[in-house]
Description:
Elements: H1 2-46, H2 52-65, H3 72-120, E1 126-129, E2 134-135, E3 140-141, H4 145-158, E4 162-166, H5 178-183, H6 189-205, E5 212-219, E6 222-229, E7 238-240, E8 243-250, E9 253-257, H7 259-268
Parallel strand pairs: 1-4
Antiparallel strand pairs: 2-3, 4-6, 5-6, 7-8, 8-9
Helix pairs in contact: 1-2, 1-3, 4-6
Amino acid sequence: MKHSRNNKKFDFQTARTLSLYVLIGITIFYLFLHPIIMTMHWFDMNNVELSFGRAFSKFFENFSRAFSSEMLGMSMTFVIMGTFTGLGFGLYSLTIKNQQKELKTHRSRVKDDLIAKIKNGEDAKTEFKSSLRYDYYTKSPNTDLESVVTKTIAGFLNASGGQLIIGVDDDGKILGIEKDYISLKKKNKDGFELRIFQLISQEIGQEFCHLVHLNIQNIEGKDVCMLDVKKSASPVYVTKKNDTTFFLRIGNATKPLSVKETVDYLQSNA
């Protein structure tokens, strides 16, 4: 019963919105474009020099003629044009509005999911990192910490995927990533996202970027980043300073595998 009432409310709002746009369309085409085109046509047919005063006077003369029976055919043409134009803009406006509503709902759902994951703590599919590059011990940026992030991403790619949450300590306390922003060239969310994907491209491989989806949400007044990492169909290696290593998520930790362990793992999962 409640669902039926919501549908009726939605249908009424839709009809009201479309009616308003149709009315605006008719008003523009019939009351403005119609006499304007009549005025332009008169000047063209009579080869009269155009002036503001004469055009203004002729517009109001044609405005009155637009309601006369002799102009009924032309008037109906403009009414129809205004109706379809208004209807088109109305449908477009409703589509944009619905898309924005869906996007807002999706963002809210993602935020709720992120909060739930933080409350549940770390597990085989969830890892917390206090920061991307800010060292809370030295109270300064430390780019060596970035490698910990890429290793974790690689571990998830080689296993069955997972979520890496940055801006939360091991106990689930919200720290935020604002301190990371300060150390970046572009000191905001965009700069943070750019740096994440630069690291993936440089140390893992650009071809794996599409398997990592980044989402930044504001929780308790602080920005928290969640990287949703999908499983890779091919082996992923981290290369840094000519050293190439295979990382794998095992239980609650990401571990480097030896050459033999890597070969055995890949053979057993082929």
